[in-house]
Amino acid sequence: MSELEALKSELQGLQVKALASIKEVENLLGLGILRVYYLGKKGKLTSVLKGVGKLPPQDRPVIGQYVNATKTALSEALDSAESLLAAKEKQQRIEAERIDTSLSGRTAKRGVLHPIQQGLNEMTAIFAQMGFDIAEGPEVEDEFHNFDALNIPQEHPARAMHDTFFFEAPKGQQAKLLRTHTSPVQIRTMKNCIEAGGEPPLAVVAPGRVYRCDYDVTHSPMFHQIEVFKVDKDVSLAHLKGVLQYFLSAYFEKDLPIRLRPHYFPFTEPSAEVDVGCVFCNHKGCRICKGSGWIEVLGSGMIHPNVLKSVAIDSDIYSGFAFGLGVERLVMLKHGIPDLRLFFENDVRFLRRMGA
Amino acid sequence: MKLSFSWLKEHAPLTKTPQQVADDLVRLGHEVEGIELPRAAVKGVRVGQIISIKAHPDADKLKLLQIDIAEPEPLSIVCGASNMGEGDKIPVATVGTCLPNGLRIKKGKIRGQASFGMCCSEAELALAEDADGLLILPVDAPVGAEVGEYLELEEAILDLDITPNRGDCMSIRGIARDLAADYGLPLIEPADELVGADTTVDPPKVRVSAHSDNPLYMACRIEGITVTDSPAWLQQRLIAAGQRPVNGVVDVLNYTMLDLGQPMHAFDADTLQGDLHVRSAESGETLLALDGRDVTLNSGDLVIADDTNVLALAGIMGSEATGVTNTTTSIILESAAFRAALISTTRRTHALVSESSMRFERGVDAAMIVVAMDQAVQMIVDLFGGKSSQMTVIGDQAALINDKQITVNIKRIETRLGIHIPETADAVLARMGFDIQREGGDLAIRVPSHRHDVSIAEDISEEYARVIGFDAIPAELPALTVIKARKIDASISDAVALGFVQVINYAFIAESEQRLFVAHDGDDLRLENPISEAMSVMRRSLWPSLLNTAKYNMNRQQAGMALVEQGRIYQGPVDSHQESNMIAWLMAGEYQTDSWYEKSRKADFFDLKGAVESWLDKRGLTARFIADDDVQGLQSGQTAKIVVGKSTVGHIGKVDGDIAGSFDLQADVFVASINLDALHAGKKAKFQPIPEFPSIERDLVFLFDKTISSNDILQAVRKAVGQQLIDARIFDLYEGKGVPESKRSLGIRFSLQDAKRTLVQEDSDQAMQAIIDAIAKKFGAELRG
Ligand SMILES: [Zn+2]
Fold it and tell me: What is the pTM of this model?
């Protein structure tokens, strides 16, 4: 056998053995070792190449081709084995890292706003969008701001209907009481404006706590109201209706009809009770609205000239509308909460369900 | 007020149904709270004529009737009554009818004989309490007609809520007037004829010495009456209106009041001593009132008295002793006008309320004083006999009916309603009694005597809005008013974002709870009329409310609490009180529950402190927490005051164990509170370039006396290093084995950075040495291992 033939057969044997080893190798580490063993600088193929120098020059290209072909074959085999093994090992790693994704997450502490707070925030925001400023006032009030200035004189029957909480006070001192509505803020805001040399327009929303000496299934001695009023030249009942329509649709997030019914409040003239199309039956009539399709939501009207007079606003020049929202009532209607008392029991199970 | 529909029809020829009328009343501003239909069940009962009567073959007391009800075939009915004859017309309840007593009429067999209905008595139609035999109808009753329609039994009781300004509508007549005006119907005028007075009966002698409070007083004597119960129809009307029949005379007066709106009173003339005197009471005089209460009068109260006794608190209530009874034979009737505001004040002072006072304080129609008197005298004489005297009249009725004049600009009304006022609306108002003249752009209006609520332009505006209908007014959005932008307070939202559940509690608490955290100093604001002792003082701390909420929830199997509340606290004295806006937190019980990744643990001081710090950080504030052993109700050694800048803004600490125990709370309870009004706005975030050069972090561990606070240590570290220090904190705390009893090991980790260069080893070595020296010098603490 010539040197050439011997070399050829050696190469062939090498290739067969190498391919068999590559096929058997089970991991990337082993494959790396094989690659160095056969194709490395000091590897088998290199050592075969060293024998080429012994060949006659005319045979060298022939064997060169053989060597290259073997090298290519081994490289390809190694490469494809490598990608297979890499994929396999990645898969093994993935399997090893598999978790039960249905286990509960590590809980982030989550709190909730009280549903009343949430309601207050939503309602106030709607009026703020409509350009109303936000105002507050004291809860411990005097009779002037809570009654007299609102055109409810001492002997007025409406005054007795307010179920007022009074404070114990030394004899001779001015009586103090817990405000029975947020309307005193209307008086204070208008008075402050005029006394500071200002003048209307005024557009104000005044949220806050109010108190009535009445405690049963449908009455809480403390509850929340939002007083809304606007005073300007030529403010009309039509404007009141427009603002109510906008507010109620925005708050209940649906287009509901509204209805104004003539009513009586000492501090407004004309006065109107406001009904909104029943949110439960979409104005069709159901048990909750007693089949009428309407639900009474608030009292409203045009600010009485006596009220404007009490804060030195000229009712010949200016007019205004005002209304008071019962926050609890609106929140109950929006969320179908059946019982007022739930709000003040503060059962965290209720709060977590209803709050946001 | 309960309004009988059939009674209403006596005042106006209404053609609409009760439901339609109710809807119209609502549109006119009279709230209808409900409609009762007491005789709705009579439907299906028809007029039948008896064709034949035969004996029942198997029952002596039963008869077989053939009855014509204008259907193709006559009805066969078995009947037990005996007062009817052939040809009589009777009410027949047909099959399917449900009678007022609940009986449903079915086809049936009675002793073997088929029966297709039932013949009815007055009792079965709810026309009388009991009855003897069938109701025999008049001969002209149309056969086949509904008996209800024929007898005009249709009745509805409307439950009205009359607003306090409409005293004129506290009567059937007042409501009828509003409706008739709206419908364009005439009002049926009451017969106003003076009863023939008998000159042998002396008119009552009356003196009025409080003329401004009692501008008109009418009295009439009736002698020789026999007081019996009033007739059934009258009693039924009173009962339907929600009133209890008393005796004939009282019932007639109540009936007249309901009918015409004028309250009246009757005295038993034989119980009086001398003349009637309308005067101011003397302080200390007493009246044993009809409701059995002994009323001690104040000077200024208006009374009707005789020579020796007070007989009545004018317009409110009479005395028991002089009231009319079944043995009364001689009476004096009173019909008068009393000043509304006086009645209101007096009845509130004495906490009395009556149907009479309700009407007087809302204002009665002066035009009805005489009409009501005449009607009542007429009815009493008709029903109970007797002779009536001539009227005694003190005062001038015409002066009371002096109508008000208002002139208003029609444009002003139109602008403020946002609607055009058509002249047709004038006609409706005219029917309500207003006299309207349009003069150019003005309306000259004369207000009728019964409308005490109308006195200014806006009242006229309301009348127009009412008759035109609020529905006709368009909805328009007003022009936007430009206001200062205002930041919405996020205090509570930020606390909620840190994991707390917001609660809202009443602002009043028990005084005993107030005392847990606030010592007695006389500055509680105390309610004069609390709901209960548990809700009697305005809170000066939110903590008692939070403890109650924690108690409520932990009693309901809640293992851990993280609550927050925002609300005011109130401090006296009453005449110069203060309200401050507070936020308060409570943490108790499990902070972390057992889970697959972590063991459970209880909340402690630092859980709450961390939350409070984060909350402050959100507002750009940093606080110092300075140990404070003198906070009432909180445990020494686990309590600190919260100091921002130089002011104490709140406190945080562990609730005293005994106090927590008194709220059934077994777990440690931690609370904090901050006065929001004391917090000034924090720093606004200002842009700073991100540092270009890297920072270095180093640790040092020292052994300190336990008494030295970490706050002081970190303060010393900051001072020792100066500007390059960007952070220093305690990263490790160890007490126990290997550390002396009185000491603790604290690891301090600090970071250095320079804005202008990269720091090198030398820098950190220098800083470490500075810290070691400072700590050794200030606290005598040494570096540990
Ligand atoms: Zn409904």
Answer: 0.82
